[in-house]
Design a protein that fits this description.
Layout: H1 2-16, E1 41-43, E2 47-52, E3 57-66, H2 67-75, H3 96-99, E4 105-108, H4 118-123, E5 130-133, H5 135-139, H6 141-156, E6 158-166, E7 173-174, E8 179-180, E9 184-191, E10 196-203, E11 210-212, H7 215-222, H8 232-235
Antiparallel strand pairs: 1-2, 2-3, 3-6, 4-5, 6-9, 7-8, 9-10, 10-11
Helix pairs in contact: 2-6
């Protein structure tokens, strides 16, 4: 009986122990994004991401981007290898084979280009931080959006960023693991120096378009409150990010 209980604990412990206090460093006032009926939060050195074990994608991925970190990231050379996140059990995680010949790119939620060191950059290549993303979006508008967020962090000293997928209707799945394809992808940015928030949503299609929306609309559609730790007045104040599509 004791052996059975021990084996059961060892099986579930890697998932149940993932929501470590260090995760709170990535969110304003230490309050992580909220999403009801979701899977575990995976804590990393540089970011945290909550998983959908059914869809095998992150529901959100949160980071604290600073001026110093951006400067370090710009000096960092090289990439890393995409890899399955072995903290999740088989059948609850995406595999590299799911993306192979799928026609979809492996789209980072927390960008690898934000990571300040090699270890942090490698973390962002876990498939627990990745969704099936249109190649045109990933290499085009989305890349520009990520660069503008880094520029804002460098200018204002720090920003908090949460990125995730949205599912309005069905866009299908990829691979034997049936990794769900988002209909759109969003990014929310909170700038403490401005006390304001910006949210942008891009259609995850092969001719993508992007537009800014109120945070209330994001919460209503996705069920994710990216910044539960800030005041309502700050949530409702619009942050202007130069270069973002209107």
């Amino acid at each position: 009986m004791r052996l059975t209980l021990l084996l059961a604990f060892l099986t579930v412990a890697p998932v149940s122990a993932l929501a470590a206090p260090a995760c709170t460093d990535v969110s304003p006032n230490g309050q992580l994004p909220t999403q009801s009926n979701a899977g575990p939060v995976l804590c990393n050195q540089f970011y945290a991401a909550q998983q959908s074990l059914e869809d095998k994608v992150p529901l959100w991925s949160a980071e604290h981007l600073t001026e110093e970190g951006v400067e370090q990231a710009e000096k960092l050379q090289g990439r890393a290898a995409f890899h399955a996140d072995l903290r999740l059990l088989l059948g609850q995680r995406a595999e590299l084979t799911d993306y192979k010949r799928s026609g979809w790119s492996r789209g980072h939620m927390t960008p690898s280009g934000d990571a300040p060191d090699k270890a942090s950059r490698a973390e962002t290549y876990a498939l627990s931080n990745v969704v099936p993303q249109s190649i045109a979006l990933n290499t085009g508008l989305w890349n520009k959006i990520e660069r503008e967020v880094r520029s804002l962090a460098a200018k204002d000293g720090e920003v908090y960023v949460v990125t995730g997928p949205a599912f309005r209707g069905e866009a299908g799945t990829i691979g034997q693991g049936r990794v769900r394809i988002p209909t759109s992808i969003w990014k929310a940015v909170y700038d403490p120096s401005e006390g304001a928030v910006a949210v942008i949503v891009c259609k995850n299609v092969f001719q993508p378009t992007c537009g800014q929306v109120p945070i209330e609309a994001l919460i209503r559609v996705t069920g994710v409150d990216p910044f539960p730790g800030i005041a309502t007045t700050e949530k409702n104040k619009h942050l202007v990010i130069e270069g973002w599509p209107k």
